[in-house]
Amino acid sequence: MSTPLIGVSKSILKIKELINHVANTCLNVLITGETGVGKEVVAQSLYAESNRSTKNFVKINCAALPETLLESELYGYEKGAFTGAHRKRPGKFQTADKGVLFLDEIGDMPLALQSKMLHVLQSGEFSPLGSDYEFKTDVWVIAATNHDLEESIYNKTFREDLFYRLNIIKIDIPPLRKRKEDIAPLIEYYFRLYKSEYPDNHGSKPDSDTLAKLCNYPWPGNVRQLQNCIKKQMVLKSWEKIFDELPREHQENIPHIHTDSQHNGTQPFVNHDFANDRSGIISEFVDLSTSSDKLFEDISLKKIKKLASDRVEKEVISFVLEKVGWNRSRAAKILKISYKTLLYKMNEFKVHPPVK
Ligand SMILES: Nc1ncnc2c1ncn2[C@@H]1O[C@H](COP(=O)(O)OP(=O)(O)OP(=O)(O)O)[C@@H](O)[C@H]1O
Ligand SMILES: [Mg+2]
Q1: Cys-Cys crosslink for 143: which of 56, 106, 216, 262, Cβ 3.0 to 4.6 Å?
Q2: How far is the CA of 105 from the centre of ligand 2 (A)?
């Protein structure tokens, strides 16, 4: 049985709603999010809710296999197609027929295979290796990645046309640190689950102080990391010990973000009070020591407004980029501008990552 999608945060509720909407449409879905956020759980939920749930759910991990093996796994092969092909073998496209094909880690698919994949998605036909016929295929393709595919397109490691084919419906799962409301229900769910798995060895649920600490931890490994902690607690029987053992080095790298119940989940705290820095700002754009006549000639509200707004934009963009480790796609989301606009502004304000 597949894992239910646990969560009460706004973002998880929205995802559940989206799953219900698209489950029977068979529109290609691209699921994104950091490692351990539940991309596979969402893919399984889509399948379970769809009218394909009586057929196969076939998963292939595009990062785990070398190029030639990945190709033969996807499309199958004829006897004698290559050395070692002693007999004909069906590929995942065939096994998944009328069901779901889950292309996990799609961001790691080699470029050469991306063009073949695009052809299959466009035509609905594929040829096993070594064959001269084409099979018609009816699969619902759900793909997942923790890569920033827009950045991969920019770096020319992912085809833009394939991206648009796969990304008809996008489900972006926020990291656990942005949906802290989900931590308690996840603990509850896994606590019950493991209680039956470890009948002689179960600890306790966290008290309110410990729960508060767990909710404030940034969980860089997301739900998977939390799940492992719950499992460990069943054996060690001490939340304090578990909490003390959690790696801390990530905490400084993660910007302080409101949870999505307080806010919409993406707004960072920017503490600098630009508004109260008045004379400082004016003196940066005009020379206050010159005569009044000259000064008044130089002061143009439009011009100063533009210079000041450029400076603020540059500061905020640099601040966010630094906080997210120069992940441009994430920065664009936080700033609520398009990826292209961000690239344009980085270029305009000469904001570049530090040279290593
Ligand atoms: N919302 C959720 N409810 C219940 N379990 C969850 C949820 N999200 C994740 N999990 C559990 O956390 C673990 C990681 O989830 P999953 O494998 O789906 O993550 P992922 O995003 O595919 O990670 P990766 O990028 O590393 O492959 C799994 O054991 C899964 O059952
Ligand atoms: Mg996964």
Answers
A1: 106
A2: 7
